[in-house]
Amino acid sequence: MKTLRLLLGDQLNEAHSWFSQINPEVTYVMMELGQELTYTTHHIQKVVGFFLAMRDFSQRLRSKGHNFIYISLDDHNNSQDLCLNLNQLIAKGGYQNFEYQLPDEHRLDQQLIQFCNSLTIASKAYDTQHFLSTREELNQHFKGKKTFIMESFYRMMRKRHNVLMDHETPVGGQWNYDAENRKKLPKNVYVPNPFLFDNDASEILALLKNRNVKTIGSIKNNALLWPINREQGLQLFEVFLNTFLPHFGDFQDAMTEEHWSLFHSRISFALNIKLISPKEVIDRVENLYRSNSDQVPLSSAEGFIRQILGWREFMRGIYWKFMPEYASMNFFNHQRKLPSWFWTGNTKMKCLSHSIGQSLDYAYAHHIQRLMITGNFTLLAGINPNEVDQWYLGIYIDAIEWVEITNTRGMSQFADGGIVATKPYISSANYINKMGHYCTKCHYNQALKTGPKACPFNSLYWNFIDANREHLANNPRMSMMYKVWDKNSVESKNQILEQADLYLKQIEEL
Ligand SMILES: Cc1cc2nc3c(=O)[nH]c(=O)nc-3n(C[C@H](O)[C@H](O)[C@H](O)COP(=O)(O)OP(=O)(O)OC[C@H]3O[C@@H](n4cnc5c(N)ncnc54)[C@H](O)[C@@H]3O)c2cc1C
Ligand code: SF4
């Protein structure tokens, strides 16, 4: 039966069973679409990364003998709309069957369900064969649950997939070594330079320029430093294993102006577009730990595996459980606009200028910069989560809604009222100073709460605590902060709140 199979730009899984045989009756199609360039404003490196990887993937499948249609952005038959293009192809090609892999985004999922309902030919959806849990398994796991705790999900996944287990017990006797993942970077620890590619981006850049595609951020020397095919994804991961993993655990939460990715793996883009699989990554780390625990401490191996087997799969479960309602949750009813310096990095606050600046330069910030610098600030300043989401969805190379929105709206902004996090991830300058090197070079003074040099994080922190008493005072993990706040005199509280009020009024000038 003549079959048309759709592949989306983040479905570049060469190991999918679809490709195990060459079938002359089957034609694959992949498209560069205007509709995907306009639902948010993307970082230039993100658009280039997707298009280069998609083009590379199509050439590989073609060279293996598969029928492959690739519709480029400037193809004169490209309507820029997924369904219109599919309708044209089906009408012209005389296909009797349409197949696709389940999208990771709710938006595309709905679009394809509606499209299939409108078809007069047969259609079928397949699993992407990328994640450790299928959408149905996640659905079953979360069914009927009222609370969603990542740690219990993670333990279940460790047992189910037999990862870092000695029979029924976790390797080392503990499930979680999070407490060992919180060291500041000392001066004497050598941090190697990040491993970068030099993929030629000139053709795509010219294409985007010709078509006036609006993007953010920059790309240097027409070269994309991110992986665009499986070999590069694996190469990046191998470098991480040999060079960065030994220190990953210790300095997972550290921040410094000197190094933009520290000991992090930077494999999220390769993973999210499915060039490499979470299973192979987890297996490789576990094998390395088991064969050489002198080189790879358990805290590093477990800390890394937890992010992928735990957080990444858990967030996907939350996404499918709560979408589409999740996208409009706003627990604190925050309404303030995102300051314009989020698009330039021009702020006197060193931690923010560096985290935003490197995001514009590299389409990347590591987890703690996303959570405890940019996310912490937007939550304390009461920025509307819609604006925060759009920023995160656009700026990062790895930003695809299922993993972006759950991290942003859930983990970082607590806009879901505590589905993902048990308490808001907020801090004053104290934490930022403890975990990073930013404060010593800042215009503001991390020790001050009031006055023109006072660090904005301090007064905004207490202002947030004060303003959200109704929502948070009964949270057992927050009650301590209310006790501390209430010990202040009325006068001192007023001074701090006035300082916060002033900073919020002058947010553009901070
Ligand atoms: C506000 C906010 C927004 C985020 N947006 C995204 C996003 O759009 N896309 C994205 O992939 N990650 C997102 N994350 C999670 C995390 O910050 C990135 O996965 C990580 O920084 C990617 O860099 P890395 O590959 O060097 O990660 P490493 O620190 O080396 O971690 C290894 C891998 O673990 C996985 N991982 C780690 N933390 C998480 C997490 N919280 N949720 C899911 N997977 C995780 C990633 O696949 C990552 O590649 C976000 C986090 C926050 C706080
Ligand atoms: S003093 Fe405040 S604003 Fe400056 S770097 Fe430290 S935490 Fe950030």
Distance between the termini: 63 Å
CATH topology of the largest domain: Serine Threonine Protein Phosphatase 5, Tetratricopeptide repeat
Quaternary organisation of the protein chains: single chain
Beta-sheet strand percentage? 5-15%
Helical residue percent? 40-55%
Discrete helix count: 20
Specify Rg, calculated over alpha carbons: 24 Å
For the sheet with most strands, the description reads: 5 strands, parallel
Total strand segments: 9
Tally of domains: 3
Helix and strand succession? EEHHEHEHEHHEEEHEHHHHHHHHHHHHH
Q: Give the overall silhouette.
A: globular
Unreliable spans are: none
- Ligand identities: flavin-adenine dinucleotide, iron/sulfur cluster
Describe what you observe in this structure.
The protein has 510 residues and is an alpha/beta fold. It is 47% helix and 6% strand. The chain folds into 3 domains: 3-126, Rossmann fold, CATH 3.40.50; 135-322, Alpha Horseshoe (Serine Threonine Protein Phosphatase 5, Tetratricopeptide repeat), CATH 1.25.40.80; 340-509, DNA Cyclobutane Dipyrimidine Photolyase, subunit A, domain 3 (Orthogonal Bundle), CATH 1.10.579. It has 20 helices and 9 strands. Strands 3-2-1-4-5 form a 5-stranded parallel beta sheet, covered by helices on one side. The protein has a two-stranded antiparallel ribbon with strand order 6-7. The radius of gyration is 24 Å and the shape is globular. The mean pLDDT is 95. Residues 349-351, 429, 432-433, 438-439, 442, 444, 446, 455-457 line the site of iron/sulfur cluster.
